[in-house]
């Protein structure tokens, strides 16, 4: 993938041992496969819920929406840290893998099941190991869910890696 490709997804660059997440891991065959990329100075994830993601007829299950914000935000944090350190996706440097330290979700209105969900995020704060990401889940131009995630760089010992 070209270094400056605007549709390069951070999850495609996670080290293999960090690519198993149910929400965004490329190796989890049963997972959602959420994918996050830059969109100007913000981040973007698009996902179309499947019929089994139903809460009540016509609406998306809230747990999926929380998962979408969670994985979008950890991907956004990884992008922000990588960019801060002078890298672009496709460089030889390993992409940091972030984990959620805190997840806050506000459900503003029922989210319809069927249309593409667009998560737009912005980096509210970036530190040495911690990144705060604020995101919104949209259907078209309508904000349905907003979230805030505190993500931290994962420091996982060999005993926990695949």
Structural overview:
The chain has a single domain, classed as Hotdog Thioesterase (Thiol Ester Dehydrase, Chain A). A six-stranded antiparallel sheet has the order 1-2-4-5-6-3, with helices on one face. The C terminus is likely disordered. The protein is built from one helix and six strands, in the order ββαββββ. The radius of gyration is 15 Å and the shape is globular. A hairpin with a 3-residue loop joins β4 and β5. With 162 residues, the chain is α+β, with helices and mostly antiparallel strands.
Write the layout of secondary structure elements.
Blueprint: E1 36-39, E2 42-47, H1 62-84, E3 98-107, E4 117-126, E5 130-139, E6 142-153
Antiparallel strand pairs: 1-2, 2-4, 3-6, 4-5, 5-6
Coarse structural class: alpha+beta
Assign an overall shape: globular
The CATH class is Alpha Beta
Return the string of H and E elements: EEHEEEE
What is the residue-averaged pLDDT? 92
Calculate Rg over CA atoms: 15 Å
Q: What would you say the CATH architecture is? A: Roll
User: What name does the CATH topology carry?
Assistant: Thiol Ester Dehydrase, Chain A
Neighbour order of strands in the largest sheet: 1-2-4-5-6-3
Summarize the structure.
The protein is of the alpha+beta class and 162 residues long. It is built from one helix and six strands.
Keywords:
162 residues; alpha+beta; Thiol Ester Dehydrase, Chain A; disordered C terminus; fatty acid metabolism; lipid metabolism; membrane
